[in-house]
Amino acid sequence: MPSDPNVDPGSGSGSSPEPLTIDAAWDIIERVLHDRVPAVAATLRGPASEEDLARLSATTGKPLPEDFAASLRRHDGQDNPTKLLDFFDHFTLMSVDAMIEHSELLVDALGDDLEDTIDWMTPDRVRPISNCRGWLQFVEAEGQGYGLDLDPLPAGTPGQVIYMPIDGPTPAPEFPSFRAWLSHFAVALDEGRFRIDEPDGLWLER
């Protein structure tokens, strides 16, 4: 049974700080966006329905991680048709419908044959293929962005976050979970590690 993404399980035994809960991360994100880029805050959609979550899961053929589902129950992406009011770094936060459409486009363009591996890639935690239906992109800028890997190799973890598209040697996942990804973003905002470009561009410091 997956753990509740909105219950803080404590610091644990590892040295890495425990990521924020989904609700705590969104509380920070909403506050900073409302204060600094209110036009972007206004693009955040309301919650996705359970039917929406079921459609998204059916598209990938995999269950959605509970932390990701909890985030969608808070905000079903953005309404950003002009691509001028991005979530951050030119990335638009994708809605359920946008994620489904993008997934289908990738399958049509690249296929999703798990046996059609790329020989010069070295598999570790992410499959050495050009596309997989179990990869679910959730932010997008000119086709690229972060996505969930719901169908990793045995050394990986379902729900690990990778950068898509993969156009080089199979990368290590950048975050162990969506919760860790969202927490990283929220903490950067909370600590002021970003800049605002006029009128409404938010960029994280690197």
What does the model show?
The chain is globular. The longest helix has 15 residues, at 22-36. It has helices at 22-36, 38-41, 50-60, 66-74, 96-110, 178-190, and strands at residues 92-93, 135-137, 139-140, 145-149, 160-164, 194-197, 201-204. With 206 residues, it is α+β, with helices and mostly antiparallel strands. The protein is built from 6 helices and 7 strands. A 3-stranded antiparallel β-sheet has the order 2-4-5.
What would you say about this model in short?
This protein is α+β, with helices and mostly antiparallel strands and about 210 residues long. The chain has helices at about 20-35, 40, 50-60, 65-75, 95-110, 180-190; strands at about 90-95, 135, 140, 145-150, 160-165, 195, 200-205.
Low-confidence stretches: 1-15
Rg over CA atoms, rounded to whole Å, is 17 Å
Q: What distance lies between the first and last C-alpha atoms, to the nearest angstrom?
A: 36 Å
Largest sheet: 3 strands, antiparallel
What is the element string, with H for helices and E for strands? HHHHEHEEEEHEE
Strand content: 5-15%
